[in-house]
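Section 3.1: Structural characterization of target chains.
Under the original work plan, the team committed to producing a structural model for every single-chain target entering the pipeline before any wet-lab resources were allocated. The record below documents one such target. The sequence was received from the expression subgroup and is listed exactly as submitted; it comprises 270 residues.
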Amino acid sequence: MLTKRIIPCIDVDLDEDGNPAVYTGVNFEDLKYTGDPVEMAKLYNEAGADEFVFLDITASADGRETMLDTVSKVADEVFIPLTVGGGIRTRDDIKETLRAGADKVSINTAALENPSLIEEGARSFGSQCIVISVDARRRYDEEGEYYAEVDGESCWFECTIKGGREGTGVDVVEWSREAESLGAGELFINSIDTDGTKDGYDIPLTKAVCDNVSTPVIASSGCGGPEDMYEVFTEAGADAGLAASIFHFDEYSIRDVKEYLDDHDVPVRL
């Protein structure tokens, strides 16, 4: 069995002075300053992370380019696979982000608006470089394609764009299957409903995607501790678990999480 990956993530925005800074929030809102992106990247590289994710959380919504100077500085500090997302709209954006030091790019809004970008990116740079990010929210109506039961109610999961600010009417499972067919090498599943809550990952959402694709799935949003990682691996079938708050605020170390998983027979790289 392949080892499960533990991935810390930083959400980066520009502060009041225009400098890159890491922020942490709940349900994609109420963002609070957390630290310097370059310093945090260095710490996570030394802490034993399997990979590292850098998300420019307002680039798409603000219509600006990804902060590549900061990406380059982060890349100089990490010697594990680096995924960068936010504001990537074209093949040239992918090229420049990889040139800045990223190993993979995470694309959400632009891929939904122009699915051929997935195919073009995979053909030009390899599927392993193309991660499709999905910001999902629950909807309790009859507009979806794939339904799951959440707290006794039937719901489907809608793709959103621009940092969760706009709905699309697109079903997450249907989109995940399409993205895979176009050449996505990985799927990065974020839940707006569980983001920052520390109440656990959105298991119904993650399982719905994992059950319908063969592409590796990164589970994100809601991790409160090692038990939640165990649950998303064993109950939903995720290939990697991403977390932010529990690592940023020293509630658990990456080593703590890996040792817990190893003790519970989940294969990890110690």
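The chain has a mean pLDDT of 94.
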